[in-house]
Structure formats: structure tokens, C-alpha cells
Write a structure and sequence with these properties.
heterotrimer, A mainly alpha (about 240), B mainly alpha (about 375), C alpha/beta (about 300), A: about 240 residues, C: about 300 residues, four-stranded antiparallel beta sheet, about 25% strand
Chain lengths: ~240, ~375, ~300
């Protein structure tokens, strides 16, 4: 129960901030007396949060599934030929800043959520692939030999022996992937996608610091909540 | 007839190279800079010697893939990459001769084919080892230089943006490096002692490193936003600070946020590097009569150095990308050009900002990897 | 040379060393032996102040070690550990030169010393520039011993120096160490849990159990009169007689050469090996010969057993 406390606490804060932001109008009015509209009203914060979550969930889930599948494939005997390539790409790709990837993806794919999802997905793949490979190859050969010797078939061995042993590292990869995606999704507002980044960007261009603050707090809380959830899952695996 | 030994990696890549032009526009041609363009297929754009070079490159690549010739594959892939640039450049030159305001932008087909050719190059280089990697790097650099210096690509939209923004881009590049430098130098001064302290006092480490981890978790745009309000308030409260350049927007919040982000990799890698010094080595050093400071300078620091350098590499690569986001809060740099392009729909301008950001990050990564001593086996 | 007076040291309430008195004479080869957790390593590490006793004194040539700066003290005592602890970022030569460099020796003197020590430890001179990672376990420990001897200390402390080596390498290094001790006359204090090693090398064997000295004797004294069951266990109850025989060269029990010739055995053989040879050949008399084949005497089964 204790291990669920931290994610629950962050989630509570996130929800309270999402639904209570408008009630904080007096606070923002007193903090920024010069602003005519001290609370972002174009969309409800709940709608922004949902839109953001949808983008992140779709992109991360796809990235995670494809990434783990690639990681598994290239560590099987029949896919070993592709492992070098997969490792090179995922290592080199992480040198590319995610914003720049977004800025490059959009011109060739157009504005809107689809290119954003694709850019987020491609970038999110890298840590998932890298950590799946790392997790699977660090399973000791002796353990794999023993499993085979005991009569495990290749898939049963993968499912019951290799994946459980690789799980902590794979989870770390997914966590990195999701956290990067949350941040990059916020910047996707610059290419016309509605996310929690929208108030920040509008606030910056309209010199409305209150909007910036409101968006920034929610993005930060979303990231911290997600991180805490991954922490809790990690503890449960351990 | 030599025996065929198809390469399981290169062959599918070559296959993908052959079908990509059928599904994706190679370039797009627009009447002017701001309207969206008409897709142009590779077969429509390709003509003359450039098309022949492309065919030759693809054919040689297919041959290399069928007969496992990684060296041939490197050269063929490089030729193909050169041909792709040449074809696009030629098409832009021809079109702009008749319509001066027309813009030719690189399309998804171009980028996909370039990416696939690059993957062939990387895989072939990997198979040949260090010499192949050097050859591939040299070939790519030579081709890029040749295409740019010969003016072949000059009529492409992105280079026309460059021609308009040459000075601005130079300034932005300098500014970008300045932001990263201003953030990373103080980070080293704070982060290394912090890492040492965290390793010496595990209690402190358990407190500080997770806290810095939380900072890393907060997305950059949010952290920049959170810096904005307090710094603006600070500047309003102390006008001298405002005159010294401290304000909610601009360099100050950007540098401060980057510093906070950079502390974790530096401090934790310093601590991890020190922790990796084997206990018997320290025991032997003590037993031989080294003083604590001699052990630190002659043993610990040397053995922790590779980890420290890796931390610096992660930090600089990360800060280069984050500095691009900092343009949103008015810090300037390459991100300003990138976002300018995204906001106004001038997508080649966005590319013009994004490509040097990637270039800087890759360059920093490469240089620091070369600088790091071979791992002690 | 070394005197420990009522030294004690506790870790987390458990006494690792519980009041030990011990004297090691100059030129002695003293083995501290016991099970793991008997306090033998802690005792050793008190001598060069890597561990400070909670109470009691450690005297070196009559001087309390606490009156000396720990680093200065350690630079004049050689120190060798099981995991060797070579500095992985330094070459073999620089590892050997560690203490002379700390003591500020001149460059040529250090160079000469490195060459001398590599010869003493029978290390290939070409290894001088090698990295420790490229050495075999046995080579690494030879370098470890050379490093400990570099500043020519009178005293050498060794904490299970050969424990991590395979049996063949271990025997070779034991032989080297015995030779070096004979040639240089160093005082050596040596921690081990291997009774054969202790009996083979040491002139003084100190058996420890739960932080206390159970017995402090010469190897033959230990075999002849084990203080209690713990010592008997360490000696191996059934092998004790054989181990005693192993300490004795055949020359000490042989008679004048007999008239009839018998199967031959070398003069350097110990009595245990001679007994084994008799059992193998089914004879009760062997001829003892020197390396030129000259008969020095004859060895009778009855004399071996009578001891």
C-alpha cells in the first residue's frame, strides 16, 4: 500500500490542479494584476489533459509494443543479423533532440496530430528497443542453458525466464520513452496539436505569464505522476 | 556465375528503397514560399546524369546486398545518397529557371530514401569495422561538401531560406553554443563536487540524486515556464537585476533551467565513477601508504574519469536539444529559427533551424566519444 | 619486531579481535590461521593501522605504531592482499614503483629497483609496460608482491595472497615466497586458511578462533601437541601423522648405506613422500641418493614410523 501512496499523491495533485485551476482565479488575479484574463479559458484544463494523455498513450503504447517486439526479434537466433543495426540506430537516434525530430517530421508529413504521433512514436521507440535488447542480453547464459536443459521451448523460455529477468530494464526504457513523449507532446502544440502545451505557448506569445504558469504546472505534475507510477510498478516487480 | 549469398539486412533495405518512390512524393513544388506544394514523384523529377548515377548506385547496392560485399555497399550507398541530392537539386534548378518564385521542398520520399540509404551505409560500415566507418564518414562528408559547394542544391527551398538568413543563422548558432556553454560550465563547478559529496556520504546521495532526478523528469517546456514567473518577479522587485539582464524571458531562465537539468548527469556520473573504483584497489593504496588526497587524485579521479566524461557528453547533447526549446522563452539560438518556421508555416525555415541543432548534438557526441580514453578492461 | 598487547576490536558489538597478545621475532615467517571470521585479517590490518584497535597496543621495534603517521608507517611495511588491488590505470612498472614514488626516490633509482624486483619475482621484463588487465592471476600477484617489496621494507604483511590462485600457480608462488624470504631475511606475517600452506611456509603458526589465540607454536610443535580439538580439526585428524612426516626431510632419519641396493629416492624428499613411495612399490627400504646418484644412506619403514 505504501508504494502506491506516492503515485496516488501526485495523481491527486494533478487532478486537483486540473479541475481546480479555474477556481484559483482570485490567486492569479492578485499575482498578475495587469492581466485582463488571468485564467486560460480556450479549452477546459480537463480537455487539455485528456488530449495530452491521448496523444502520449497512443504514441507510447505503439512505441513500447513495437520497441519490445524489435528488441525481442533481434535477440532471437533468426533476428541476430539485425541486432547491430538496431543498436546503432537506437544509440545514434538518441543524440537527436526530440524537438528537432518533431521539426523535421512535420515538414514532410504536414501539420496535425498524425505527424505528431508518428514523430513521438519514432523517438519513443529508441529507448524501448535499446533497453529491451540490453535487458535480454544481460540474462546469464547459464540461466538460459538451464532453462533449455530443463525442457523449455524457445517461446516458453522467453516468456517465463528471459522476459521476467529483463523486465526491470525494459521498464526503465519504457519510462524514459514515456517521459520524453510527455514533454515532446507539449511542444507538439507548436505544430497545431491541442495539448497541455497550448496554454504555455499562447501565454508566451501573448505575454500572459499566468497561462504559462498554468500549463507548466500541469505538464510538470503529469510527468511527476507518471514517473511515480513507473516507480511503483518497478517496486512491485522487484 | 558467382554464388549468391544475400545479406539478410541489406537486401530488405534495398527492397524498401525500390518501392519507396512509388508511394511517397520525392519533392514538393509550390508556387511560392508559403503555399503548400504539389507532390512530385521521383520518376518525374529524375532525369539526365543524376538519374543515371542514382540507378547505378541502386544497382551496385543490390549487387552488394546479393553477394555480401560490404565495401561495395558503402560506396554504392554513398553514390545513391549523392544522386538523391543531385536529382532534387537539379529539379529545383530547372523549375526556378522558368518560375523564379517557385519553391521546391524535399518530400517524405526523399527523406525516406536518404534514411534507407544511410541505414545501408551504417550496416555495411558496421560489418567492415573501424576502417569502413572511417570510409563511410569521409564519403558522406565529401558528398555533402561537393553538393553544397558546387551550388547543385542552391535552388532548393531550404537553401534559399539559408541564403536569406545566412547572417541570422550564424548569430543563432553562436547564441546556441553560448547558452549551452553558460549552462554547462557552472554545472561542472557545482556538479562534480556534488557528485563527490554524494559518493562520500551515501545519506546525502540518497537525498540529492533523486531530487535532481525529479528535475530531469519535468519536461523542458514546463520548467522554462516555471522559471518565468519567479524570475520576472525577481526582476520587478530588484530593478538592478533587470538591468543586469535577469528577467523572466531570455537567457537567464534558459541558462538556469539548463543548469538544473545538467546537474543530474554530472553529479550522478561522478558519484557512479567513484563508486566503481574497486575496493581492493583503494585498500591496496591505503596499505601502500597513500594519503587520502593522494588516493583521490592518483587513483579515484583517474578511474572515475571515463564515467565523468560520459556524464559530460550526455549533458552537452541534452543541453543542445533543450536550448532549442528555450527559444520559446526568448532565449534565441537555433530554436528561434526553428519555431519561427513552424509558427509561420515556412517549413523549410523550421528545417534550417532543426538541422544545425542535430548537427551540433551529433558533433558534441562524436568529439567527446573520441576524447574519452579506452575503457579499462 | 612486532608485539601486540591485549588488542581488541569490535564491529557492531561483535568482537572480531578479543584481547590478543602476540610476539613475532625479526626474520620470522608467521602464519595467522583460522576459519573466516576468526579475526585473522583484522589482526593483520592492525599492524599497519588500516584498522585501529579499540584498546591495547601494537608495538613495532618497541615503538607504538600510533606514534607514527599512518601513511609514513605503511610506506615502510609491505602489503599484499588476495585480490591484489593493482592500479588498473597504471602499467606494471608504475604499479611496482608506487611506494618508491611516494617516498620521492630519484628516477634512476626507481628504474633500477623495478628491474631488480621483476627479476626477483621472475617476471618477464617485457611485462613492464603491460597493463594489469592483461596479466594472468599468478603474474598479477607476482607484481603485487614486487610492489610490496619495492621500498625494501623489513616487514611484509600478506592477507591470503595466494587464495585466489589455482593450485599449480599457488605452489609455484609459495616456493618463490619461501626463496625470497630466505634470500632477503624479511619478517613476514601471513594470513591464510590453508593449513598446508601455513605448515609449509611458516616458522611460527598462530591459530585463531573467534578473535582469540588458540595456539602459538612452531609447525612441528603444533603437529606434535595440538592445544585442543579446534586445532586438531584444522590439522585434519586423520592426516596429522602424515603432515608431521611432511615437515621432515628423509636425511634426518636415514641410516648408513646398506649393503644391498634398493629403489632410489632423492635426498630433498620429505618423509611423507618417502612413505608414499614405499607403499607404492611395496618395499620397506629405500636408498637415499643425491642429485649425482651417489648413495647417501638407506631409509627404513620402521624409522619413519618411529619418527
Amino acid at each position: 500500500m505504501i508504494r502506491l501512496l506516492r503515485p496516488a499523491l501526485w495523481l491527486g495533485l494533478l487532478l486537483a490542479a486540473t479541475f481546480g485551476m479555474t477556481s484559483l482565479r482570485p490567486l492569479f488575479t492578485s499575482l498578475f494584476p495587469l492581466l485582463e484574463r488571468p485564467v486560460y479559458m480556450q479549452d477546459s484544463f480537463a480537455a487539455l489533459l485528456l488530449a495530452h494523455l491521448e496523444l502520449v498513450t497512443v504514441a507510447s503504447a505503439l512505441a513500447g509494443l513495437i520497441g519490445i517486439a524489435i528488441g525481442i526479434a533481434v535477440t532471437r537466433p533468426w533476428g541476430a543479423a539485425y541486432r547491430g543495426l538496431a543498436e546503432t540506430i537506437s544509440a545514434a537516434g538518441q543524440t537527436f533532440p526530440p524537438v528537432a525530430v518533431l521539426a523535421i517530421a512535420v515538414p514532410s508529413m504536414g501539420f496535425g496530430p498524425e505527424p505528431a504521433v508518428l514523430a513521438l512514436l519514432l523517438y519513443g521507440l529508441l529507448p524501448a528497443v535499446q533497453n529491451t535488447i540490453a535487458g535480454l542480453i544481460q540474462v546469464p547464459d547459464a540461466v538460459k542453458d538451464a532453462a533449455t536443459g530443463l525442457g523449455f521451448g524457445p517461446w516458453r523460455r522467453l516468456w517465463q525466464v528471459e522476459l521476467p529477468l529483463a523486465a526491470p530494464l525494459i521498464l526503465t526504457g519504457l519510462r524514459v520513452s514515456v517521459i520524453i513523449t510527455i514533454g515532446t507532446a507539449a511542444i507538439a502544440s507548436t505544430v497545431g496539436v491541442t495539448t497541455l502545451g497550448s496554454p504555455v505557448l499562447l501565454g508566451l506569445s501573448a505575454e500572459n505569464t499566468a497561462y504559462v504558469l498554468q500549463g507548466a504546472v500541469l505538464i510538470g505534475l503529469l510527468a511527476l505522476t507518471t514517473d511515480a507510477v513507473f516507480d511503483a510498478i518497478h517496486d512491485m516487480l522487484a | 556465375m558467382p554464388r549468391l549469398r544475400p545479406d539478410p539486412v541489406l537486401l530488405p533495405l534495398v527492397g524498401a528503397l525500390c518501392v519507396t518512390p512509388l508511394g511517397f512524393a520525392f519533392v514538393t513544388a509550390a508556387r511560392n514560399r508559403l503555399v503548400s506544394g504539389r507532390p512530385v514523384a521521383l520518376l518525374e523529377a529524375a532525369e539526365g546524369p543524376a538519374a543515371l548515377l542514382g540507378l547505378a548506385g541502386l544497382a551496385l547496392l543490390a549487387l552488394a546486398a546479393l553477394r555480401r560485399g560490404p565495401w561495395l555497399a558503402i560506396i554504392a550507398a554513398a553514390l545513391l545518397m549523392a544522386a538523391l541530392g543531385w536529382i532534387a537539386g537539379d529539379y529545383a534548378t530547372t523549375l526556378s529557371a522558368s518560375q523564379p518564385t517557385a519553391r521546391v521542398s524535399l518530400g517524405a520520399g526523399f527523406w525516406l530514401m536518404l534514411g534507407l540509404a544511410a541505414l545501408c551505409l551504417v550496416e555495411a560500415a558496421r560489418q567492415t569495422g573501424r576502417a569502413g566507418t572511417s570510409l563511410a564518414t569521409a564519403l558522406v562528408a565529401a558528398i555533402l561538401a561537393l553538393l553544397l559547394l558546387s551550388g547543385t542544391l542552391d535552388q532548393l527551398s531550404i537553401l534559399r531560406e539559408y541564403a536569406n538568413k545566412r547572417d541570422v543563422l550564424g548569430m543563432a548558432l553562436l547564441r546556441h553554443v553560448e547558452i549551452v556553454g553558460l549552462a554547462v560550465l557552472p554545472t561542472l563547478l557545482i556538479g562534480i563536487p556534488l557528485g563527490i559529496a554524494c559518493q562520500r556520504r551515501p545519506g546525502l546521495g540518497r537525498l540529492v540524486l533523486p531530487a535532481l532526478g525529479v528535475v530531469q523528469t519535468i519536461p523542458s517546456i514546463a520548467l522554462f515556464g516555471l522559471m518565468l514567473a519567479p524570475l520576472a518577479a525577481l526582476a520587478a522587485w530588484q530593478p538592478e537585476l533587470a538591468r543586469a539582464g535577469i528577467s523572466g524571458v531570455g537567457m537567464a531562465p534558459a541558462v538556469l533551467a539548463l543548469l538544473l537539468y545538467s546537474l543530474l548527469p554530472i553529479a550522478s556520473n561522478t558519484a557512479a565513477g567513484l563508486a566503481s573504483v574497486p575496493e581492493p584497489v583503494r585498500d591496496a593504496a591505503r596499505g601502500l601508504g597513500m594519503t587520502p588526497s593522494q588516493i583521490f587524485w592518483q587513483v579515484d579521479l583517474h578511474l572515475a574519469f571515463p564515467a565523468l566524461l560520459a556524464g559530460l557528453r550526455i549533458t552537452i547533447v541534452q543541453a543542445t536539444g533543450l536550448a532549442a526549446v528555450a527559444a520559446l522563452i526568448g532565449a534565441g539560438g537555433l530554436g528561434a529559427i526553428m519555431f519561427d518556421g513552424l509558427f509561420t508555416g515556412a517549413l523549410d525555415l523550421a528545417l534550417l533551424g532543426a538541422i544545425p541543432v542535430i548537427g551540433l548534438a551529433v558533433l558534441a557526441d562524436l568529439l567527446l566519444r573520441l576524447a574519452s580514453p579506452r575503457a579499462i578492461a | 619486531m612486532i608485539r601486540l598487547e591485549q588488542v581488541r576490536r569490535a564491529y557492531a558489538g561483535r568482537e572480531a579481535v578479543a584481547g590478543v597478545d602476540l610476539t613475532v621475532e625479526r626474520g620470522a615467517f608467521c602464519a595467522l590461521i583460522g576459519e573466516s571470521g576468526s579475526g585473522k585479517s583484522t589482526l593483520l590490518r592492525m599492524i599497519n593501522r588500516l584498522v585501529e584497535p579499540d584498546s591495547g597496543r601494537v608495538l613495532l621495534d618497541g615503538e607504538d605504531v600510533r606514534s607514527l603517521a599512518p601513511e609514513q608507517l605503511r610506506r615502510h611495511i609491505g602489503y599484499v592482499i588476495q585480490s591484489v588491488g593493482l592500479f588498473p590505470h597504471w602499467t606494471v612498472a608504475r604499479n611496482i614503483a608506487a611506494v618508491p614514488a611516494l617516498l620521492g626516490w630519484e628516477r634512476p633509482r626507481i628504474e633500477a629497483r623495478i628491474t631488480e624486483l621483476m627479476a626477483l619475482l621472475r617476471l618477464d621484463p617485457r611485462l613492464a609496460k603491460a597493463s594489469p588487465a592483461s596479466l594472468s592471476g599468478g603474474q598479477a600477484q607476482r607484481v603485487g608482491v614486487a610492489r610490496a617489496l619495492a621500498a625494501d621494507p623489513d616487514l611484509l604483511l600478506m592477507d591470503e595472497p595466494f587464495g585466489a590462485l589455482d593450485p599449480v600457480t599457488r605452489t609455484a608462488l609459495q616456493t618463490e615466497l619461501a626463496r625470497i624470504q630466505r634470500e632477503t631475511g624479511k619478517t613476514i606475517v601471513f594470513v591464510t586458511h590453508d593449513m598446508d600452506e601455513a605448515l609449509r611456509l611458516a616458522t611460527q603458526v598462530v591459530v585463531l578462533d573467534q578473535g582469540r589465540v588458540v595456539q602459538d607454536a612452531t609447525p612441528s610443535g603444533l603437529l606434535a601437541h595440538p592445544a585442543d580439538d579446534r586445532v586438531r580439526d584444522l590439522l585434519g585428524r586423520e592426516d596429522r601423522g602424515l603432515r608431521r612426516l611432511a615437515l621432515r626431510p628423509v636425511q634426518s632419519v636415514m641410516r648408513k648405506p646398506g649393503p644391498a641396493s634398493a629403489p632410489a629416492i632423492a635426498a630433498a624428499t620429505d618423509c611423507r613422500a618417502a612413505l608414499s613411495r614405499m607403499a607404492e612399490l611395496g618395499v620397506s627400504v629405500l636408498d637415499v641418493q643425491d642429485e649425482h646418484g651417489t648413495r647417501l644412506g638407506s631409509l627404513h619403514l620402521a624409522d619413519l614410523i618411529a619418527g
